[in-house]
Model the fold of this input.
Amino acid sequence: ETGVTQSPTHLIKTRGQQVTLRCSSQSGHNTVSWYQQALGQGPQFIFQYYREEENGRGNFPPRFSGLQFPNYSSELNVNALELDDSALYLCASSSEGASNSGANVLTFGAGSRLTVL
Amino acid sequence: AQSVSQHNHHVILSEAASLELGCNYSYGGTVNLFWYVQYPGQHLQLLLKYFSGDPLVKGIKGFEAEFIKSKFSFNLRKPSVQWSDTAEYFCAVNAPYGNNRLAFGKGNQVVVIP
Done:
């Protein structure tokens, strides 16, 4: 069973640019969530995707957007990058789906570290 | 919305010492509770979880946590730590049927000195 894989592992962008981060979910998982972890902080929920649609969103502006594909993989897109977007972006998958009991454990990837200069 | 508080962000202790990390959450309803651990250079992984039943939960590597509903707490404990327990520990909570979004605390950076 493969885990959650994310790419790229590290990248550097400048203010105003756009970035796309990718995530392949664990085998058997149909739900993908994205989290932002700033330095010295815990992960913050960005949004979740299930059945290729956004299924819940945290307190992040619309320039943070995502996609989920039929194979359950996902992308996180951030437009008009700001310095404060520098963080580790974590993808997590689960088999939660629409039931949303919260009882399905998330499997996290290693993250994509974004630096905005 | 749920929020989670973890105190004593940096903890340094010697091998064989006991460890207790505090976690308090603010949410009035039923919650699911988790402790995740991130070892150096590795990804977040589940240490233990509480959904219902016995409030004393045992996890991997000798860790346990106790859910005290009246105190809105879910403290993590280990009686005798090892050098390999050096890691960052995160408490997290979600509300059932709330889109499975986890609210994390800021984490505890634990360093165990051999």
Observations:
- The CA atoms of residues 62 and 78 of chain A lie 9 Å apart.
- The mean pLDDT of chain A is 91.
- Chain A touches chain B at residues 3-4, 31, 33, 35, 40-45, 48, 55-56, 58, 90, 92, 94, 96, 99-106, 108-111 (CB under 8 Å).
- The two ends of chain A are 37 Å apart (CA to CA).
